[in-house]
Queue: 3 jobs
Job 1
Amino acid sequence: MSETIKEKFIINGFAGKKSLKGKLRVSGAKNAALKLLPASLLFEDKVLFSNVPEIEDIGRMADLLRGSGAIVKKKERGVYEIDPSKIKNGDLDYEISKRLRASVVLTGPMLSRFGKVTFPHPGGCVIGARPIDIFLEGFEKMGARTSAVKKGDKESFVIKARGGKLHGAEIFFKQQSVTATETFMMAGVLAKGKTILKNSAMEPEITHLAEFLIKGGAKISGAGTTTIEIEGGGMLKMGGQEFKVMPDRIETGSFLILAVLAGKDIEITDCNPVNIEALIELLKLSGAKIKIGETNIIVKENKNLKSVSVKTHEYPGFPTDLQSPMVVFLTQTKGESLVFETIFEGRLNYTESLVRMGANIEIWDPHRIMVKGPSNLKGKVLESPDLRAGLAFVIASIVAKGESVVHNVYNIDRGYEQIEERLKKIGVDIKRVKN
Ligand code: EPZ
């Protein structure tokens, strides 16, 4: 597994010059594919996905599904066929689940299908505690009870549906949660009776997941709004239809920020700009010139950008996953920007590395920073703490003067397919080196 081979990127920056030219293709969405693969457990026949991003997290999810007995075949690059008919139980591999927050969504289809699931707390990472209280409370309402089991130093949860079957319920999410909304949408598919989810998240990946389930025969209404209704029924059938994973909106937004910062003439292709309106609006307010197409974005040379303040918010607000690339952008704009990270309590720690590069950033509290610009960034040795800050460090290194080293490339590979290959194609001086 590539995590054991510590790798790093060596990047030579352009010192603020606008030199990048060419096309940047966007891959399929990590946070859509990581829910579509588990959703295949609700089907009685094979399911075929295309445009699946070739990233580490998908590899881990495939391992988890295989560990539970599903047959997962990679037909070609980005095309996966899953045969869920051989799935035997709801026990999730402890080690893999620990490393993949998205593993928590498997509890929905597993409980819905088998009435029992065993899994470890999916674990937090540098961005916050990542509790799962909303999941445990929701399953109680659907007639399941949770107990904790300890094997040595490994603690897992066992969730069992009374009578072996979940029943529908009305669940009001005390906090809008993306994976909780997806998990209970899937749990409702095979539950007895109707499930109503209130204060649901509205991210495009949720609407996309509902589209897939409905294609298989599920009765779901309201996805993309805060109230989703699911009528429980029998196993779903795909009947050989293929389902294409939507473009990754966070990758699109990260590439757009890079293009505005260092682009001379860049086209971002195979994307869905309507899903990043919050970012596009702020970039335009800062003075960036951006040409938006149906499935592409064209960026020519931009200069004299003005500071804008950013508040992260559930969709359709500004996405927390674009906060770190946006802060790199703000270090290059003229003026002061207040950045308010409302979703996670640990998602601003990476800024100390940007300060080491020369950025002028004041930390006000765990949720707020003030960015003053523009600053000339200098190349440094950096450690990517998570995949989004890792990519932000790559962007900062491209803008900086001199050489940067970005360690823990596995974190970036978790969410961005062959990132250095795509960046080289537009002129970035980047190479992957084993430690
Ligand atoms: C999803 O995480 C994404 N991950 C995250 O992307 C993204 O940052 C996040 O949504 C917010 O948009 C995947 O889809 C795999 P939440 P999720 O539940 O669902 C609190 C990336 O880089 N909460 O919407 O885990 C939680 O602590 C990742 O691709 C509870 O309190 O996030 C947070 O403050 C990072 N109890 C808030 O809700 C719970 O039981 C929103 O989190 C669950 C969540």
Note: Residues 30-244 form a domain with the UDP-n-acetylglucosamine1-carboxyvinyl-transferase; Chain fold (CATH 3.65.10.10).
Job 2
Amino acid sequence: MENNKVKAVILAAGKGTRMKSDLPKVLHPIYSKPLLGYVLDAISATGLVDESIVIVGHGAEQVETFVKNYTNNANCVLQYPQRGTGDAVAKSKDILENFQGTVLVVCGDTPLIETETIIDFINFHKNNKSALTVMSAIFDNPTNYGRIVRNLDNSLKCITEEKDASPEVKQIKEINAGIYCFEKELIFPLFNDLKCNNAQGEYYLTDIVAASIDKGLKTSAYILQNNDEIFGINSKLNLSEAIKILNKRTNSRLMTEGVTIVDPDTAYISPDTVIGRDTIIFPNVYISGKNTIGSNCKIGPFAHIRDNVQIGDNVRIGNFVEIKKSVIKSNTNVSHLSYIGDSQLGEHVNIGAGTITANYDPVLKTKKQTIIKDGANTGSNSVLVAPVVMNENSMCAAGSVITKDIDADSLAITRSPIKIFKDWVTERLRKGKSGEE
Ligand code: UD1
Ligand code: CA
């Protein structure tokens, strides 16, 4: 049966030695989403791929657990031992047994690849009616990448890895991006003939290019325009560099969409956060995970929005405020020094400075809800011990610890009564001077 949908194979079995980490490389997060999540999202957003096959090996169990929880249309296949990228792709043989059509191969450690590029790449491959297409890029500094070697007539010849390259080949600036498209029936048989007689003793996926050409199959290269997209993560330094690239991309898009960002260099905003126009992001804001922020809001400076937060319009989230897993309706203010977690705030709520929702039960290790309805106000430095409800227009006085629901239009106060000692200071001074003390 002809199937127009593409199957993706994502290579994620490698060790990631240079990360110097106990966590498998592809699970390292950017804004709380693992690198592999970015790749899975970019592929699934193309709408052209109906299934992803993730090749797992190093930290296989952890990676598999992540994939299972993250998406329904990806399956994992174990590669053990890890004998190279060619061997990795070959592991998808059984799962693809009955599939006829195009296979897309992507590395799990290139989180910046964009959906539009993948679409363009697949279309390029299909329109050319190629058996195999490899994505290439022109790098000023091509060190460590496989080089695209071409014949005098500019046609493709092969890919040579840095470690196997002669000084002449090392001069080549066209590199292998590590992303491929191929027709399964034509190319899969060639994997049987891969050899590992190279500098690393591995089965190189890159050797498929020469094999395909030798068989007389149409083999093409697609030259990537924006090199940032194939930035690979091999170290913690690379991880920090990728965040910078991602920020630049996200913040530029948000500003184009009408968000005001006072200082894009210090606005850390996850790409999965939607922000309405005329919202102002002040400096030193960190927004992680998936969130929605409405229009005309003011966020920061120094605000931390952690994940799963929905904010309406005209909301003020001020300095040193942390918010997590909460809904905040329009026209509400959380202006200073507060923690709002697992909470639902209505409209026109005012959260006084230093208000804390105590959402965590450390004995049962569970999170509890705080509900603050329309028009309610909290006094400064109040603690709302969840589960607790503040009904419409209710108030709690400054410094209160709220452990019971507050009725609508009512005030709650928990304070020891104030005592005032009249003239105490004067008296104290007089006694001190006269030597009575
Ligand atoms: C690979 C390419 C190189 C290209 C570069 C682009 C090969 C031989 N070389 O080199 O031409 O320029 O990518 O970034 O393919 N993996 C497995 N199983 C294995 C080995 C690797 O799943 O046995 C996975 C890794 O987890 C990684 C990906 O394959 O996600 C690439 O492997 P890596 O070792 O990083 O290859 P490079 O040396 O970067
Ligand atoms: Ca790599």
Note: The chain has a mean pLDDT of 97.
Job 3
Amino acid sequence: MSSKGIITIERHIIEAERQFPEATGAFSNILYDIAFAAKMIGKEVRRAGLADVLGYTGEVNVQGEEVRKLDEYAHEVLFKALDHTGHLCGMASEEVEDFIPIPDRFPTGNYSVVFDPLDGSSNIDANVSVGTIFSVQRKVSDHPRGCVDDCLQPGYKQVAAGYVVYGSSTMLVYTTGNGVHGFTLEPSIGEFLLSHPHMCIPEKGQRIYSVNEGNYSRWSAGQRRMVDWMKGATPDNPRPFSSRYIGSLVADFHRNLLYGGLFMYPADVKNPNGKLRLLYEAAPLAMIVEHAGGKATDGQRRIMEIEPESLHQRTPLFIGTSEYVDLAARFLAEETVEEPALAGV
Ligand code: AHG
Ligand code: MN
Ligand code: MN
């Protein structure tokens, strides 16, 4: 037990809120509600192989992907945890094409939440780690009960962001702009306990790159040169990187946050804007990584400055150790690239 004793996520949120005398508690309640939803989703994820949750609903989501029942369940859990609280003016979800207004029977509030209810869902059947990603924004529209504009804000306007990784343990990691903090679920008491206070991505982290090399033939010349260099396929890299790719963004990101490294989902000739979604995948993780000392770009632009035009807008994503994100930008600009002296790695 740490010298400060056991700190639950509830206590952590309350102590953070006390720093803002004008805080109304609405924001804290949103984080509690998301933590509650994460416990519910985690329970089903752990039983996925048993609860006949596997398989397909036979429907297709806005991404054109077959929806596995667990995606739908996770969406419903988050929606139902948040829709009645009176703290939100609306939501947006990977699983729903349009803006999700608060049902008329409930009051509205001054925040919106955008989420990817289940990230990495294609991995569910294989028992590979999956996750949930969320982003909290302040109401900005004049619409009395909220509208899509309240969800369509650039990343730097987020007031909180976080993710849950349902892996060997269930961890919730979030930031409100005052450090990045990780909580591990103690299943025997159903509480998220502070296990990783003030998370920082290692500055001289491990030389890890995460990318789906199956897309190599569709990449730009700069992207191919970068990965060739990283894997030591060219003579000018004496210390090749290690390749790690789980195929669940949250799991790949979480590992790189802890160990260092670079996750890439680049544009390619088939997906000129990449595959990942700006609002509920790239931007929340960009807020996390920046507050942990890392960087997130689309190859050139800071993710947090990209103005969203639509809810499911995609973006290329380069996220992780600042030095490697900068290296990627140089390769993609096809400049001559001198690897910085990565002392001590
Ligand atoms: P989701 O399950 O929410 O649709 O996200 C899947 C994403 C992301 O988790 C992962 O990094 C990426 O898809 C993997 O894509 P590829 O299979 O094309 O590598
Ligand atoms: Mn996802
Ligand atoms: Mn998803």
Note: The pocket of AHG (ligand 1) is lined by residues 94, 116, 119-122, 212, 247-249, 275 (CB under 6 Å).
